[in-house]
Amino acid sequence: KQKVPGTFGRWWTPQYDQAWSAFQHAMSIRYDSNPLILATAVTSCSSSTGEPFVVSVNNSNIQTLDKAGWSTQAQENCIQNIFSDYSGWKKTSIDLAANPLPSLVNGKITSNDTFTNQIIAKCISSYSHGGPNCIIGNNDLSDIVTQNGAAPVYTEISNLWNEAPGTFTAYFQTVGPNKLLSCKSINIAITHHAKSVELWPPTNFIKGFAAIPLSTLLQWNSGLINGKQVRC
Fold first, then answer.
1. How far is CA 2 from CA 5, 29, 227, in A?
2. How far apart are the C-alpha atoms of 71 and 77, rounded to whole Å?
3. DSSP-based three-state secondary structure for 195
């Protein structure tokens, strides 16, 4: 595929965040009471995907971001503002996709799991502190997700559940359109207290969930609703 250049606003700056926060509050005034809207995705601080913790930090991009004034600290500050940005959503839940945050330290990329864990904990306690009901999630669900780079998110969800069982739920999305969802992936989601899993839809190039028999989808759905492992 041909690469097409794109332009992004400086999402990490206070001026951008103020405008984004105002937009979210305007949206919540108009749509928060609409019964058709069950949740809204948190896309603050995002660029290439709707995931605040995903920052493209390859060599060429990091140079561009650095020249524009981006920094790891600026990204963390932006993410910290998520809960005030979305505070207008009182009846509608917010979905927050978490990942270990890539950090640039002395020119090298590392993973800041501690910061991510703090935000995960803040998400699941948001409602009890007067904020929006925050559903924690991750968009890398696969058969091996608990063994790859996203594994710390799943570990932290389990740890927090063990500390306060039944106080929150999670959601997950399969890692990509070319990865066919499996029974094992569903059981990983159920083990980590998900009540929903987002499947990729069919397109001209992939079958998506249409490749999975309806009877199987119904079985998986029942397992998620009841929190019981499905038979593989």
1. 10, 41, 44
2. 10
3. strand
Residue 232 corresponds to which tokens in the numbers above? 């593989």
The helix (run of H) or strand (run of E) holding residue 40 is: strand 39-41
How many residues are recorded in the chain?
Answer: 232
Rounded distance, CA 113 to CA 65, Å? 22
* Cβ-contact 89, 40 below 8 angstroms: yes
pTM of the shown model:
0.90
CB atoms within 10 A of CB 194: 23
CA distance 88 to 33: 11
In order of 54, 57, 66, 208, 221, the CA distances from 198 in angstroms are: 18, 26, 34, 11, 11
User: Taking Cα atoms as reference points, which of 37, 13, 172 lies closest to residue 91?
Assistant: 37
> Which residues pair with residue 196 across a beta bridge?
171
Average pLDDT along the chain, 232 residues, taken 10 residues at a time: 74 96 97 95 90 82 85 94 96 96 76 92 95 95 92 96 94 81 92 93 83 92 95 88
Separation CA 175–CA 101 (nearest Å)? 17
- Taking alpha carbons only, the member of 89, 85, 79 closest to residue 119 is 79
3 state SS of 110: strand
Q: What is the residue type of 15?
A: Q
How far is Cα 123 from Cα 167, in angstroms, rounded to an integer? 12
Beta bridge partners of 93: 39
How many separate helices (H) and strands (E) can be counted in the chain? 8, 7
Contacts of 117 (CB under 8 A, 6+ apart): 152, 156
